[in-house]
Amino acid sequence: MVKINLLGKKRRESSAKNWIYLGILTPFVVFVLYFLSVSIFVVVKLSWIKAQQGVVDRETETVSREMAANNELLKKFILAKFILGKIESLNAGKFPYKSYLDQLLSFLPEGVVLKNVDFSSKGWISVAISIEGMRPLRALEQNLSGTEKLSSSAFRSVFVESVSRDKIGVYNAKLQFEIMRNGGK
Distance between CA atoms of 72 and 78, rounded to whole angstroms? Predict the structure, then answer.
């Protein structure tokens, strides 16, 4: 008698099918787990970003309120800065008359009167003076010939254009002061 075991063959077939299902199901389960972990990470990250955005929104609101409160001060500051900038630019292009006059007066001793100053020639200052006697004339000559005083001023050289004496004994002189380039700076 021959025995036929049909049950073993079915078991082997079902065992092979189980391995096939397991082989297909394993990558699917891994993919689902990966997808779930990435999804959870994204949700957590978005929650954190939203919380940070709330903090930034509150800080922005606070800064906006402070800026609105300080808006008048800011306007005054900007206006003052603009005005000071304009004044500075105007002063930068201005000819320094006072500085040159102060330096001219430092050359004139007592008894010498400044009568006229002319800035019309570029690079030169013409000066008309009256001198009351010989003593102030000699003091003026010493001041003008002293190279130390001239080198510390904004003038390169001094020329005597003319000297004349009037009827009452007062000397009238015309001098030319050559201005150094950039005012000696």
Answer: 10
Residues 104 and 117 sit within 8 Å (Cβ to Cβ): yes
Q: Which two tokens stand for residue 117?
A: 């100053």
Distance of alpha carbon 75 from the chain centroid? 20
Any idea how long the chain is?
A: 185
Side-chain-facing half-sphere of 169: CA atoms under 13 Å: 6
Q: What is the mean pLDDT of each run of 10 residues along the chain (185 residues)?
A: 59 70 89 95 95 94 85 86 89 79 87 89 90 86 77 81 88 89 56
pTM over 0.85: no
CA–CA separation, 13 and 11 (whole Å):
5
CB crowding 36-58: b at 16 or more within 10 Å, else e: eeeeeeeeeeeeeeeeeeeeeee
Cα separation, 162 vs 156, in Å, equals 19
Cβ atoms of 180 and 156 within 8 Å: the answer is yes
Architecture of domain 97-184: 2-Layer Sandwich (3.30)
Q: Is the dihedral of CA 159, 164, 165, 166 positive or negative?
A: negative
* 114 vs 110: CA distance, rounded Å: 11
Please state the domain extents for the chain. 8-94, 97-184
What number of other Cβ atoms are within 10 A of residue 88's Cβ?
Answer: 9
